[in-house]
Amino acid sequence: MPLSAYSILDGLREFGFKAPLQVYRALDRLIELGKVHRIESMNAFIACEHSLCQVSDMTAFTICEKCEKVSEVKDKELSDYIHLRAVKFGLHAPKTNIEFHGLCSDCSNR
Fold it and tell me: Residue 56: is its pLDDT beyond 70?
């Protein structure tokens, strides 16, 4: 489940974290290392599910609009397609995050 920086801060206060800036700096570093992803539409962060994200140029997520479950998608075909589209339009996009919103199978079957 994605967490906001303030939710993370609340959980870390007992360990001496007091300012949001401390959490944001740590999250920025973890993002650089490919250990955490930012889910832009939710203004939240989630731990990486794959060990090679630090070398990946595209990460995709499925996001359930009902239960807010987020899953990381690794799909070489999708990554290649996005890269080709970027090149076609003259866009240099070294890191791309894509979010697919909808209902997960659990929520759509209820």
Answer: no
Q: Which residues neighbour 90 within 8 Å (Cβ) at sequence distance 6 or greater?
A: none
Report the CATH number of the 5-108 domain. 3.30.1490.190
C-alpha 78/C-alpha 59 separation (Å) is 9
Taking the C-alpha atoms of residue 1 and residue 18, their distance in angstroms, rounded to an integer, is 23
**What sign for the dihedral angle of Cα 81, 99, 59, 49?**
negative
Q: Please give the Cα distance from 19 to 22 (Å, whole number).
A: 6
Residues with Cβ within 8 Å of 67's Cβ and at least 6 positions away in sequence, in order, are 104, 106, 107
- Cα–Cα dist 13/22, whole Å: 11
Is the whole model's pTM more than 0.85, yes or no?
Answer: no
